[in-house]
Design brief:
This protein is mainly α and about 500 residues long. It has 26 helices and no strands.
Length: about 500
């Protein structure tokens, strides 16, 4: 049976996996004695798996001339067509929910954006919330797999920076047999990534349960953290019961979205060395520490200027609230710490929208589930900027770094700058298109950044006008859907797909 499955097209296998994943909310419905919901999820999953298997049997002997090109096409279908298939239970369970809105909900989940059309989370049954989190978790695994199976061979997704320095798979501690072509490459990568992905999720869920969280919420939040989808059945971390201990555990696993190598750290004997030297981890640490120090010092300057007394009781709470929330938005998860209110009160920061938007734009690491520009590209621009400032002071100076760093800050910075400009142009165009559908321009910019960086929860935390996704028209939702797919696949991959030379190879 497994030998036959290897011959199935990648999109068919993904569809079968999505159908099989419906057993998770079905089991939750059985646990809650919601027989109707359990039957809907079970029958929908069975139908989807059966139809996918028939299509796979019809196409199993079809050979592709270019496996990478075929996988890129399958990835595009997974983020456009597959959400419509996974939306079947939502259409059957939720009254007056059109297929288009259900498709948007599933698209938001599978791209790990986490934007929801349901403003009140408690109006949905637990099985639906768990299904949204499961699709987000499945999408996170798909993104990790696509990073090494599709983006790395094409030198896209941030690999174009790393490829000039060293082999990407070796740098991320992947086995050397993962370099094969076609289905065998996919299978080898699944064997490496899947156990680590499942193991990390299980450890996080167990940790949240030990911290005092309900099992159902622990599963939902655990899958949301691992996939950086930011999906919550209780409206965020403040609705949970794990408290600050749960946030500490979540913060540890959020580091996986900073560097993909951390998910395979158990295979790496020299992890202490590369943790100290890795540019993504170093830059992320600088950002988190810098944000915390800046907001912390803002309180002291305001207190000295106004002659106010310092409230030491909220000091530690504000520090942790800033650390966790900064890390959450940097990884494009979008969860707020329950201590973020204390951090705002301590610093006197009433409008944090610019900070959150900036963190989301920077994004996480290469080949991770996080969106945004990516830390490695920002690091290349940072190294180039520091060198140019150094040359302004010492015009005839020679860079003290080695050949690897020089190549990153030269060729790498050039490519990163091109991507950054394309990213900024995309934000402007999407915001202009959204503003024509009704929202104010400020809200349109926020929505555009939320979609392109796959940080859906950002709209509910930074908008003063309480704009929601449910208030958008169908045209506006369609624009955001295109932006989410564009942000997930990245603009360079989309440009490659529309390049005639790409299809003539």
């Amino acid at each position: 049976m497994l030998a036959h499955l290897r011959q199935y097209p990648l999109f068919v296998l993904l569809t079968m996996a999505g159908g099989a994943a419906m057993l998770i909310p079905a089991a939750q419905s059985l646990r809650n004695e919601e027989w109707h919901h359990a039957r809907i999820f079970f029958q929908s999953g069975l139908l989807i798996c059966a139809m996918a298997m028939l299509v796979g049997l019809a196409m199993m002997n079809r050979k592709t001339r270019d496996p990478v090109r075929s996988h890129l096409t399958a990835l595009l279908l997974a983020f456009t067509v597959l959400p419509a298939i996974l939306a079947l239970p939502l259409v059957l369970l939720i009254d007056d929910l059109s297929w288009f809105k259900a498709w948007f909900e599933m698209l938001s989940s599978i791209t790990t954006t986490g934007a929801s059309l349901f403003d009140a989370p408690f109006e949905l049954p637990e099985s639906v919330h768990l299904w949204r989190a499961t699709v987000g978790w499945f999408g996170g695994f798909l993104i990790l797999l696509a990073g090494f199976a599709v983006m790395q061979p094409l030198n896209l997704g941030g690999f174009e920076i790393r490829s000039m320095v060293q082999d990407s798979a070796r740098a991320l501690n992947l086995p050397q047999d993962a370099h094969g072509d076609g289905s065998e490459r996919i299978i080898r990568l699944v064997r490496v990534i899947a156990p680590a992905y499942l193991g990390m999720t299980a450890l996080l869920v167990l940790g949240l349960v030990v911290a005092g969280e309900r099992v159902y919420i622990a599963f939902a939040h655990g899958m949301s953290i691992i996939s950086t989808s930011g999906i919550s059945p209780v409206g965020g971390l403040s609705g949970g019961t794990s408290g600050r201990m749960g946030e500490v555990i979540m913060a540890v696993f959020l580091l996986i979205a900073i560097n993909a190598r951390l998910i395979l750290i158990w295979q790496d004997r020299g992890w202490r060395t590369w943790i100290r030297r890795d540019p993504e981890l170093r830059l992320a640490g600088m950002i988190v520490v810098g944000m915390t120090v800046a907001l912390f010092l803002r309180h002291w300057f305001a207190a000295l200027a106004e002659g106010q007394q310092t409230d030491y009781s909220n000091m530690l709470n504000s520090i942790w609230g800033t650390v966790f929330t900064t890390l959450s938005y940097l990884t494009t998860t979008g969860f707020e710490s329950r201590d973020w209110g204390a951090a705002q009160s301590w610093s006197g920061l009433n409008s944090p929208e610019i900070i959150f938007l900036g963190l989301a734009v920077i994004g996480g690491g290469v080949a991770t589930t996080a969106g945004g520009v990516k830390l490695l590209r920002v690091f290349a621009l940072f190294k180039h900027s520091t060198r140019e400032l150094e040359r302004l002071v010492y015009a005839n100076s020679i860079g003290r770094s080695g050949i690897i760093t020089r190549r990153v800050r030269r060729e790498g910075a050039y490519i990163a700058w091109i991507f950054l400009m394309l990213f900024a142009m995309s934000i402007a165009l999407i915001a202009m298109a959204l503003s024509l559908t009704g929202p104010r321009f400020e809200e349109s910019v926020t929505l555009a950044i939320a979609a392109l960086t796959n940080t859906g929860p950002v709209i509910s935390t930074i908008t003063d006008h309480s704009a929601t996704y449910s208030e958008l028209s169908s045209t506006g939702l369609g624009i955001l859907a295109a932006a989410m797919v564009l942000g997930r696949l990245e603009l360079l991959a989309v440009i490659a797909m529309f390049n005639p030379d790409f299809w003539r190879r």
